[in-house]
Specification:
alpha/beta; eight-stranded parallel beta barrel; 11 helices; 8 strands; globular; binds flavin-adenine dinucleotide; Mehydrof_redctse-like; Methylenetetrahydrofolate reductase
C-alpha cells in the first residue's frame, strides 16, 4: 500500500506553515527570522492569517506580498467574510491576484465581538465561507483552502451539520481543507472517515499546534471547541516555572502526535507556527525534512 511508517522513506511528506502578520517592528524582525529558518525546509506553501474583522488587512497583504517578492515559496493569504461587502473582499482578492498570489485560505471569520458571539452576515457581504469560495473561483483561478473541524465548529449543532457545511465549501470549489488543531488522533481519523462517507474527496490536512504555552493553547482550545485531553494537561502539570523542561515536553508531545499520524498514513501537515521556528523546525526534522541549500542561500 501507499502507507508510510515513521521508519521509512519520508520523501512523500509535505508541510505548510501558518504565520500571523506582525504588529510591531520587533515582531516583524522575529517573524522573518522564523521564516528564514523554516523556508529552507521547502514547505508546499506558507499561509498568513487575517485578523478578526479584517483588522490586519494591510499587514496581511504586506507580509504575503513580501513572501512573493523575496522567497520561492508560494504564499496563501487568509481572507474572511466578516465586516466587509462583497465588493471590498473582491478588491482584496483581485489585488492579491495582481501581486502574484495564487492561493487563498477562505474563511467565514468570527463575529467582531469575538469567538462564540452571535454571527450575523454583513448585508451585501459573503454570508458564509462557501459563498466566499465560489466568489474567489469566479474572480480568478485561485487555489482555495478552507477550514475543517474534527470536533465540529462550536456553532454547528452536530458533526453531520458541520460536514454538510464542509461539503458546501467543497461543492463551491475548495481544493483542500485544513483542520482546527486537535490532540487526539483517533478523533481526527474518525472525522476523516465520516467526511469520506459524505463523498468529500479533497485532502483534509491536519492542523498541528506546538504547545509553546499550555495555558494559552488550552484557553484558545476552549473557545474554539477543541478538546484538551487530561493526559495533555498532566504532561505540563508542575512545569509552570520551568520553561526549558516545558519546551522539551512540548517537542515530545508534538513529535508523538505527528509520528503517530505518519504511522496512520498521513503525509501532509499544516503547522500553526505562532511565528516561532523552534518546535516546528524540530518536528519537521523528525519527519525527515532537511534544509535545501539553495533556499538557505
Ligand atoms: P463556515 O465554514 O462558513 O461555517 C461556520 C459555521 O457556520 C458552520 O459550522 C455552520 O454552523 C454555519 N454555517 C455554514 N454555512 C452555513 C449556511 N450556508 N447557512 C447557515 N449556517 C451555516 N479566522 C480569522 O478571522 N482569520 C483567519 O486567518 C483564520 N484562519 C483560520 C485557519 C484555519 C485553518 C481554521 C481552522 C480557522 C481559521 N479562522 C480564522 C477561524 C474561523 O474564521 C472561525 O472558526 C469561524 O468561526 C468559522 O469560519 P469557517 O470558514 O470555518 O466558517
Amino acid at each position: 500500500s501507499e502507507r508510510l511508517s515513521r521508519r521509512e522513506d519520508h520523501s512523500k511528506i509535505g508541510v505548510s506553515f501558518e504565520f500571523f502578520p506582525p504588529k510591531t517592528a520587533e515582531a516583524e524582525v522575529s517573524l522573518w527570522a522564523s521564516i528564514g529558518k523554516l523556508l529552507p525546509l521547502a514547505p508546499r506553501f506558507v499561509s498568513v492569517t487575517y485578523g478578526a474583522g479584517g483588522s490586519t488587512r494591510e499587514r496581511t497583504h504586506q507580509t504575503v506580498t513580501r513572501l512573493v517578492r523575496e522567497t520561492e515559496t508560494p504564499p496563501a493569504a487568509h481572507l474572511t467574510c466578516v465586516a466587509a461587502t462583497r465588493e471590498e473582499i473582491d478588491d482584496v482578492a483581485r489585488a492579491y491576484w495582481e501581486a502574484g498570489v495564487r492561493h487563498i485560505v477562505a474563511l467565514r471569520g468570527d463575529p467582531p465581538a469575538g469567538i462564540g458571539a452571535h454571527y450575523e452576515p454583513h448585508p451585501g457581504g459573503y454570508a458564509y465561507s462557501n459563498d466566499l469560495v465560489a466568489g474567489l473561483k469566479d474572480i480568478a483561478g485561485f487555489e482555495v483552502s478552507v477550514a475543517a473541524y474534527p470536533e465540529k465548529h462550536p456553532e454547528s449543532p452536530s458533526i453531520d451539520a458541520d460536514i454538510d457545511a464542509l461539503k458546501a465549501k467543497v461543492d463551491a470549489g475548495a481544493d483542500r481543507a485544513i483542520t482546527q488543531f486537535f490532540f487526539d488522533n483517533d478523533t481526527y481519523e474518525r472525522y476523516v472517515e465520516r467526511v469520506r462517507k459524505a463523498g468529500i474527496e479533497i485532502p483534509i490536512v491536519p492542523g498541528i499546534v506546538p504547545v509553546h504555552s499550555f495555558k494559552a493553547v488550552s484557553n484558545f482550545a476552549s473557545r474554539a471547541g477543541a478538546s484538551v485531553p487530561a493526559w495533555l494537561a498532566q504532561r505540563f502539570d508542575g512545569l509552570e516555572d520551568d520553561p526549558a523542561t516545558r519546551q522539551l515536553v512540548a517537542s515530545a508531545v508534538a513529535a508523538e502526535q505527528v509520528l503517530d499520524l505518519v504511522d496512520r498514513g498521513i503525509t501532509d501537515f499544516h503547522f500553526y507556527t505562532m511565528n516561532r521556528a523552534d518546535l516546528v523546525y524540530a518536528i519537521c526534522h523528525l519527519l525527515g525534512l532537511r534544509p535545501k541549500v539553495e533556499e538557505a542561500a
